[in-house]
Design brief:
The chain contains 5 helices and 5 strands, in the order E-H-E-H-E-H-E-H-E-H. It is α/β, with parallel strands linked by helices and 126 residues long.
Length: 126
């Protein structure tokens, strides 16, 4: 079974970049891409998701607020917070996000996070 991913970023060019990375990554299924975080919680409730990659600074709700809401779900996805503001890495740690990815990120960094998630999931016997 592949890793099911949702991406959230209000910058269309970054959504396209992540879409390209995930579409060319073996063992990953891109379930959805969103420019606004507000619809993501309902989407994840209806579509079991393993990982959510989300920008932090967005116009509707922040990625931190989104992560907090996702953590309340019965089976919460691993959340990767993304920002060009390095100081947000502390916020990611505080809310127990899976990881913080500083923009601009590389394909290799995204692949590394997905592989780390995969290894942790295997280690837990899931």
């Amino acid at each position: 079974m592949g890793i099911r991913v949702v991406i959230v970023d209000n910058a269309p060019e970054l959504l396209d970049k992540l879409t390209g990375i995930f579409r060319n990554m073996e063992g990953v299924e891109l379930l959805g891409r969103f420019e606004e975080a507000v619809a993501v919680v309902e989407f994840v409730k209806e579509h079991p998701t393993d990982m959510v990659f989300t920008d932090i600074v967005m116009p509707d709700i922040s990625g931190i607020s989104l992560a907090t809401e996702l953590h309340k779900l019965v089976q919460p996805p691993a959340v990767v917070l993304m920002s060009s503001i390095p100081g947000f890495s502390l916020e990611a740690w505080k809310i127990q996000a899976f990881a913080f990815l500083e923009k601009p990120y590389t394909r290799a960094q995204v692949v590394q996070l997905v592989n780390r998630y995969r290894k942790e999931k295997e280690r837990m016997g899931e």
